[in-house]
Write a structure and sequence with these properties.
The chain has 445 residues and is mainly α. The chain is built from 16 helices and no strands. The protein is globular and about 60 Å long.
Length: 445
């Protein structure tokens, strides 16, 4: 017997899990990254490798997605993932503080902690997505995905400025206390929210009925649309992740901003992402039409606008205007949000195409492409900054050169997005260049 479709209360409760994930992860990729690069004066490659490790471990997402397609209950995976995420977050703060006096021991502790963060975020996030795909009625999936994605961005936008407020005046002790509070509250809220969501769901497919993972994965990879979209996700997320680890250190080095101020800057950027997503959703659903309702147009346009915003961020350093930096960073967030919500809309459309009962595997594949790109992007960006600092005398010029390189990758992403194959007729999915469904803007967590 099938369980009743998940209602809006259940969808919002799953969204709270995404809010918790966002609240913790943003401290790892922004605040911890900045403290290591600026306050501890470690090579930018060190936090870059740490962040890369938390993304790299998520290459296992396809296997987790496959398990979500054919495995048992998902609530234990979500709660277990949240626990690993929270413990990893606190461990990262402890490792950073320890690195101030014992660099080797501190970095080693932080390395273990970042792996826990990656395992926790990947396991919990993949299981939430699989639960949405199987428990939400087809006509409500797009709206449900939008809801949980926006709630994750809210986690970014709320956690970063609040943490920034309590981090000033900065001390290592404050970093540990603030991080522990964020992780503890996030774990408690998300765990209470998810308990009971699938209480009426029957056990999933028995283990004996599982098809081999290798066969399921190969079947998905042979689908042209899935393969093309994987390449686009990788390239666009590479560009996105390269700027993510550089904006705060850039503001600290070039503009002399404090850790609290740069954390607030990250909050401003994520607020822009939220505005971009909501704005595109409104334009596509409330206004629609062949242009404003086109997923492909918003994806391409968002990538191009992101490229222009990155050039503006670099230019703000030469102008020496902190206000110009804030405007450019906010514009970058809006542009990122615009392309992200449109790309995610295509993802939700494509997830149900091809072989039956492979939604989790496809989402896992795209999640792995995103994670690998994020990990590689952080390493590449920080490595390029370190190399550029050896070549040019000005740190500003070093950061600016990397920002321009990222802009060029966004342009390449726009070209790829314009050629993504649309789902074939007969599948229950909208075309990649078709208007968003009228009831909601699709999104994914």
């Amino acid at each position: 017997m099938n369980a009743a479709p998940l209602g809006w209360s259940g969808i919002v409760r799953l969204g709270l899990v995404q809010t918790a994930l966002g609240a913790i992860v943003v401290l790892m990729t922004s605040t911890i990254n900045r403290v290591m690069a600026v306050e501890l004066a470690l090579p930018a490659l060190v936090p870059g490798l740490l962040v890369a490790s938390h993304y790299g471990i998520q290459i296992l997402r396809p296997a987790w997605g496959y398990g979500a397609d054919v495995g048992g209950r998902r609530t234990p995976w979500i709660i277990g993932g949240l626990a690993a995420l929270a413990i990893g977050g606190v461990g990262a703060a402890l490792g950073t503080a320890l690195a101030a006096t014992h660099p080797a021991a501190g970095v080693a502790l932080a390395a273990l902690a970042f792996l826990l963060v990656g395992v926790g975020a990947g396991a919990a996030g993949t299981s939430v997505l699989a639960m949405l795909a199987t428990r939400v009625a087809p006509e409500r999936r797009a709206a449900a995905a939008t809801t949980v994605w926006v709630m994750m961005i809210l986690g970014f936008a709320i956690s970063a400025p609040l943490a920034g407020h309590f981090l000033d005046p900065f001390t290592q002790q404050r970093l540990i206390i603030v991080t522990a509070c964020v992780c503890g509250i996030a774990f408690l809220v998300a765990t209470l929210a998810v308990i009971g969501v699938e209480s009426d769901a029957p056990p999933l497919v028995a283990a004996a009925k599982k098809p081999p993972f290798r066969d399921a994965f190969a079947q998905v990879w042979r689908e042209p649309a899935a393969r093309q979209f994987t390449i686009f996700i990788f390239v666009s997320m590479l560009a996105y992740s390269m700027q993510e680890l550089l904006v705060e250190p850039f503001a600290g080095v070039v503009f002399g901003m404090t850790p609290g101020t740069t954390t607030k800057l990250a909050g401003l950027q994520h607020g822009g992402v939220l505005l971009g997503m909501v704005g595109v959703a409104f334009a596509a659903t409330a206004i629609g039409g062949p242009r404003l309702g086109s997923l492909r147009m918003w994806t391409v346009g968002g990538c191009v606008a992101s490229a222009a915003s990155l050039v503006a961020v670099a230019a703000s350093g030469y102008a020496g205007l902190a206000l110009a930096l804030r405007v450019a960073v906010f514009a970058l967030g809006v542009s990122n949000g615009a392309f992200a919500v449109a790309a995610i809309g295509s993802m939700m459309s494509l997830a149900g195409t091809g072989a039956h009962a492979r939604e989790g595997t496809r989402m896992g594949l795209w999640g792995a492409a995103q994670a690998v790109a994020f990990g590689l992007g952080g390493v590449v960006a920080t490595f390029l900054v370190d190399v550029a600092k050896l070549v040019v005398a000005s740190p500003l010029s070093a950061y600016a050169a990397v920002f321009v390189a990222e802009a060029l990758i966004f342009i390449a992403s726009a070209a790829l997005a314009s050629r993504i194959a649309a789902p074939q007729a007969g599948h229950q999915a909208t075309r990649a260049d078709a208007p968003l469904p009228a009831h909601a803007a699709p999104a994914q967590s």
